[in-house]
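Model it.
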Amino acid sequence: MTDATLFRSLHNAADPLVLVNAWDAASARIVAAAGARAVATTSAGVAWTLGVPDGDALTRDAMLVHLARVVAAVDVPVTADVESGFGTDPDAVAETLRGVAAAGAVGVNLEDTLRGDRPGLRDVADQAERIAAARAAAPDVYINARIDTYLRGADDLDGTLARARAYLDAGASGIFVPGVVDAATITALAAAIPAPLNILVGPGAPSVAELAKLGVARVSLGSGVAEAAYTVARRVAEEAFTAGTYTSLDGADGYGDLNALMSR
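Modeled.
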């Protein structure tokens, strides 16, 4: 079984795929060693570790070089967050997908947020064309079409489902609807979308077991893990620079354990 086939098979509401999103080779290896069946990158975490903000600020080439390192670090399938595709037109999105496949990743998240002078959501037909180009460029890559209606504050179930249908018709493999954690909406989405549903989680969200009962096939932690890691760094620095103590380091994994993990 290829990694692409394996990754696709992991999307199952009876046993949801849990993705503890990584942002570099080290975090990917840590997540894999903890038992991950697949590794997903977070665009925010990748951008931050390279010193730029999230939101189409990173270059395609920088993302692909970084992605190849993540893929090489683990023995499980890797899916990449490619933001809105690193390009203004479908041909550019296709080029990104070819690069992702060449880097060894077997999936992508492709969002429909439009940034720049006219921030908002892309026109449905425009995004469908981009997804179709992505599918043609990388036939075996799992395309997780991210719909940002709820992230943008539009409590619009009908509009979300219309986008989901259009994106699936264009070649998407699954649908990702971040910004939704209430059971009624998740149930409605899962029932109406004829493809694996991905939900973004964090503190206060339903558990994986609860989401499985609602029909969710994929559960992502997104940028939350990177946020937590960088928060520890800030707390340690503030404590050292003010109190002159180091208690924020309590509970950290040891040098030997981490170094051994990186020396596989």
